[in-house]
Amino acid sequence: MKNTAKLLYEMDKDKRSVAAFVAAKAKEMPPLLAWAEPEASFARGGQAGRIRDFQPLTTGCPAWPADLPLVEARLFWPTSALHVVADGNGCRWVKLRESDAGEKGEEVERSEKPVLTLQDAARFGLDTRGWPGGSLTAIEYRSGGRLVGWRLTVSTKEQTP
After folding, report:
1. Of the candidates 6, 65, 85, 144, which lies 20 to 30 Å from 111 by C-alpha distance?
2. d(CA 157, CA 113)
3. Is 47 within the bounds of a domain?
4. Residue 62 or 127, more confident
């Protein structure tokens, strides 16, 4: 028997930038995790490469630099995710969430996979000290073998004495 879930989707567009839209949504409901992709051509102080004070993956509400143009961002909650992409007029977004009991939704296959970047969590800006025994997990949703969505969460392991 396959592990399944029912997904609900909302989607729309907004005139705000990705950064402004994500900041407003994170303020409404603080996320568990947040991820962003800056504009590739953005250079700070004429220097190419990594942006020194930018952490692409963060715990809680993101505190990305206000002057950093984002082309994509995601917010993750325990049973939902928000994906935001820049377009010529602001941004487009889609929110997916696992439906509650009794709600309708698209039935999809659900699988959990460990995210192995925790071996170098600091490189991704993660402070995992608050995750005793936990790990970063990707949850994939597939329909007919096709990936229809994913989200990140923190899976906690039961500690044995």
Report:
1. 85
2. 14
3. no
4. 62
Residue 46 domain-assigned (yes or no): no
Domain total of the chain: 1
pLDDT at 159 over 80: no
Indicate the DSSP class of residue 20: H
Phi, psi (degrees; rounded to nearest 5) at 94: -140, 135
Q: What is the dihedral of CA 149, 150, 151, 154, to 10 degrees?
A: 150
- 148: tokens are 């229809």
Among the residues of the chain, which ranges form H helices? Answer: 18-28
Is residue 96 scored above 90 in pLDDT? yes
What is the predicted pLDDT for the residue at 45? Answer: 62
Q: Considering the chain, what is the average pLDDT of its residues?
A: 83
In a domain, 83, yes or no: yes
Q: For residue 9, is it within any domain?
A: yes
Sheet holding 106-114, edge to edge: 57-59, 33-38, 70-77, 80-87, 90-98, 4-14, 106-114, 134-143, 146-156
Domain range holding 133?
4-41+54-156
Grouping H, G, I as helix, E, B as strand and the rest as coil, residue 94 is strand
pLDDT of residue 150 exceeding 50: yes
The pTM assigned to this predicted structure is 0.83
User: Token pair 């039935």 is at which residue?
Assistant: 107
